[in-house]
From TrEMBL:
It comes from the Bacteria. It holds the Pfam family DUF2256. It comes from Chryseobacterium suipulveris. This is DUF2256 domain-containing protein. InterPro entries: UCP037205 (IPR017136).
């Protein structure tokens, strides 16, 4: 499968699109953040 054919989501923190990764195969429905950095900063308000 080509990368362009993989499912996409938008990060809840940085609003950037990110695509499916094999390590998220079983929990894809629960993934909200594109990276560990965004997950850690989910409660930080950027003005």
């Amino acid at each position: 499968m080509k990368k362009s054919e993989l499912p996409m989501k938008v990060c809840a923190v940085c609003n950037r699109p990110f695509s499916w990764r094999k390590k998220w195969q079983k929990v894809w429905d629960e993934v909200k953040y594109c990276s560990e950095k965004c997950r850690r900063n989910k409660n930080v308000n950027i003005s």
